[in-house]
Amino acid sequence: MNRQPLLDVRGLRVAFGGKAVVHGIDFQIAPGEKLALVGESGSGKTVTALSLLRLVQNADLAGSARFASSEANGAASDLLALPESRLRAIRGKEIAMIFQEPMTALNALYTVGDQIAEVLELHQALSSQAAHAAAVQLLADTGIPEPARRARSFPHQLSGGQRQRAMIAMALACRPRLLLADEPTTALDVTVRGQILDLLADLQRRYGMAVLLITHDLNLVRRFADRVAVMESGHIVEQGAVSSVFEAPRHAYTRKLIDSRPTRDVEPVREGGAAPVLAARSLRVSYPVPQPGFRGWFRKGEFVAVRGADFSIAPGETLGVVGESGSGKSTLALAALGLLKYQGEIDVAGRRWNSGGASDRALRRVMQVVFQDPFSSLSPRMTVEQIVGEGLAVHAPELDAGARRARALEVLAQVGLTEAQFPALLDRYPHEFSGGQRQRLAVARALIVDPRLLVLDEPTSALDVTIQKQVLGLLQRLQRERGLSYLLITHDVEVIRAMAHQVVVMKDGEILESGPMERVLDAPKHPYTQKLVAAALVD
Prior knowledge:
Blueprint: E1 7-16, E2 19-29, E3 34-38, H1 45-52, E4 60-68, E5 76-78, H2 84-90, E6 95-98, H3 102-105, H4 112-124, H5 128-141, H6 147-150, H7 160-171, E7 178-182, H8 190-207, E8 210-215, H9 218-224, E9 227-232, E10 235-241, H10 242-247, H11 252-258, E11 278-289, E12 301-313, E13 318-322, H12 329-336, E14 343-348, E15 351-352, H13 357-366, E16 367-370, H14 374-377, H15 384-395, H16 401-414, H17 435-447, E17 453-457, H18 465-482, E18 485-490, H19 493-499, E19 502-507, E20 510-516, H20 517-522, H21 527-536
């Protein structure tokens, strides 16, 4: 590198209680450069970024991170050795950070305008009035509509994309020289993800700042970064220009990441006119909402979350429901599960949901669900035996404890979890497993009652790319072996390509387009479907 680096990290080591989690890594970032730090959860990416600003509590740091500060006329200072007072002047002003989850990073008690203005008052000594005006302009620069009104909004009053834009506005308030972006698009829909990425690229060019992008999404790296550094277990195993690393990876771990895109391995649905496992006609779901003014005293308004939806799922078939947040996907799934009041007709294996009792209990054995986040959907106070065997206590009460235990071990083995791998498997708790293993537990819990259909609500969105591929492979294998049907809810077009036979595209509660996967995704007719497919493509 010919230019003097803006940031030069040498031998960075991070340890907790004497145990190293980052092992003496080296990397550089030039002024105006975009470097992506890539790896799976637990590889040390976020700890590395936070350590640069000494934001990790109880961490033992070694090595150096020399930053060319503008206040020192370009002379490099070691961030790891600076007094706290000098480092505090750099944080937010010369090095800013965008955190992964804006809802937890933003203060729920203050408006977004006040939070942005606070940065300007602290680092640029602006008056309250001038800082507020600058905050509104920053929100406008990040593309938020009605910025003056949104500046008076609290974080919960903004959408996910708007909250992320507010975080970006706060980070850019002082025109930093270096921006640390920690998974800035992970929790966003595919179209919003593309918008945020384009926004960051535009602001980076406009302000001439350098960016350290922390991500496990290789599509983002291809579209955004100049160079990439690949981390595995606290080591940088490979780094270089994005084009050279992706086209000719040298390290086995890099090749593993690149090869982790979802692959399609599903059998065609058998012809023969078998009755559908699940069918909906004119499905409508609505919620009462308060009306403004005195009218709200006498009657409620109505928000229609799903309107006039028709679909069916044959035995062994996967119906993929794709759309952005708020499109009505999850509401449709909850209605199909009989967990929401609805209008219209829903048939499960030829029978209708009633208002409870033995009839509904029998249908719940036919249709089970796997939720998005395996950590929050599994009780931390229950053992694996209790979690997986719970369904048998309800649907097969005739089985004794020994039979339930044997059945639990059998189903766990089917999803790839055995006592040979995990001694005393049934006595363990969810926190003792990785994210992918917890999702396998969730699948086992659903399978133990021999359902005919699984509702999969974003089953891989919380997982790393390599684990995502493993879980999708597991679901594909189980479908072939058991003849399972899936109702797959997702915003990930690549997952739809890998899993679905039929596709339904939803927006604002309506089905805009439906049909076979190849026709809908390869030759979309509706402009919204075209937009979703285009946003999922790599530049």
